[in-house]
């Protein structure tokens, strides 16, 4: 997770407020199955981990790689999403992925990762 800078934002991008930390989460997905996977069936979310803060969505076109479409067998895709977290909620984040299709196990815990905005 990396903190966003003014240079990351274009004229029409959605920027953080003065009391928020803007950051970008980047992740890789590798398709180890025998058929293409539908990336539109996955959702993702980042929330504050230090005090539990709620994030807001941002958009910074420079360096952004939105997740969508299909990922072929044995291929890896790198994707990003931008968020804002109130500065008072610290710099630690919990990032969660959720599968939203017929293969979803509603009893399983969604995979999540914790890290710090750097």
Walk me through the structure.
The protein contains no helices and 9 strands. The chain has 118 residues and is an all-beta fold. It has a 4-stranded antiparallel β-sheet, with no helix packed on it. Strands 4-8-9 form a 3-stranded antiparallel β-sheet, with no helix packed on it.
Q: Record the strand order, biggest sheet.
A: 1-2-7-5
Question: How many angstroms does the end-to-end distance come to?
Answer: 6 Å
Series of H and E elements: EEEEEEEEE
Shape: globular
Largest sheet: number of strands, sense, barrel closure: 4 strands, antiparallel
Mean pLDDT: 92
Count the DSSP helices: 0
* Class computed from helices, strands and strand pairing: mainly beta
Runs with pLDDT <50, length 5+?
Answer: none
**Approximately how much beta-strand content do the residues carry?**
35-45%
> Rg to the nearest angstrom?
15 Å
Strand segment tally: 9
Instruction: Assign a percent range to the helix content.
Output: under 10%
Label this structure with key terms:
single chain, about 120 residues, mainly beta, 4-stranded antiparallel sheet
Topology:
Elements: E1 2-3, E2 20-30, E3 37-38, E4 42-48, E5 56-57, E6 70-71, E7 76-86, E8 92-99, E9 112-116
Antiparallel strand pairs: 1-2, 2-7, 3-6, 4-8, 5-7, 8-9
């Amino acid at each position: 997770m990396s903190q966003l800078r003014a240079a990351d934002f274009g004229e029409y991008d959605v920027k953080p407020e003065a009391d928020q930390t803007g950051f970008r989460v980047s992740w890789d997905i590798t398709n180890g199955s025998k058929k293409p996977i539908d990336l539109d069936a996955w959702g993702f979310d980042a929330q504050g981990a230090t005090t539990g803060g709620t994030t807001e969505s941002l958009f910074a076109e420079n360096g952004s790689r939105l997740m969508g479409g299909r990922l072929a067998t044995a291929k890896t895709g790198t994707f990003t999403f931008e968020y804002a977290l109130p500065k008072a909620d610290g710099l630690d984040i919990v990032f969660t992925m959720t599968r939203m299709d017929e293969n979803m196990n509603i009893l399983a815990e969604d995979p999540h990762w914790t890290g710090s905005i750097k």
